[in-house]
Design a protein that fits this description.
about 170 residues, globular
Length: about 170
């Protein structure tokens, strides 16, 4: 990131290549829409470039990047609400495939996604960062702007709430 701050645009391309997949997965889990997540990845790196002179050397890059991405995703969700295009595409794929197993995987993922969407934003973000991005609690705290203990507590509360939200559906299966 120091090279980017110094005006080296090829260094930005290296950062993009290194982080784009992980960033996309994080954003996709937050917004639930492939096209929106792709747009947000681009917007995140545009913001990184614009803020390159504000980056403090010695600060971990990944939490800084994910904080920018999270803030953009929250703005997107507030502005548009959750878009359902990705879910519809998955449903169409599962239906056209005709595979029971694919349909079951789709149903499970939709139930989890719907339950995640019902969690308070801070819990959802903490859980996505821990389970899908596999960040340490210290890094989650940096992204969410809270202590490591608070990140741990939010993740725990999210797991408990998610388990409770899915219990009735799972037992009814």
């Amino acid at each position: 990131m120091r090279r980017v701050a110094g005006g080296d645009n090829t260094a930005l391309a290296v950062l993009f290549d290194r982080h784009k997949s992980r960033l996309f997965a994080f954003l996709y889990h937050l917004v639930g829409d492939r096209a929106a997540a792709e747009d947000l990845v681009s917007e995140t790196f545009l913001r990184v470039y614009r803020a390159r002179t504000c980056y403090r050397a010695g600060t971990a890059f990944t939490p800084w990047l994910l904080t920018i991405a999270r803030n953009l995703a929250l703005g997107e969700l507030r502005h548009r609400g959750v878009v359902h295009r990705a879910r519809q595409r998955l449903a169409e794929d599962a239906a056209s495939n005709g595979s029971e197993r694919a349909a079951e995987r789709f149903e499970i993922s939709e139930q989890v996604r719907a339950a995640l969407a019902r969690l308070p934003e801070e819990q959802r973000s903490a859980l996505v960062l821990k389970e899908y991005q596999q960040l340490e609690y210290r890094e989650i705290g940096q992204v969410l702007g809270c202590s490591e203990a608070a990140a741990r507590a939010r993740t725990y509360r999210a797991r408990v709430a998610l388990r409770e939200l899915l219990r009735g559906w799972w037992e009814a299966r």
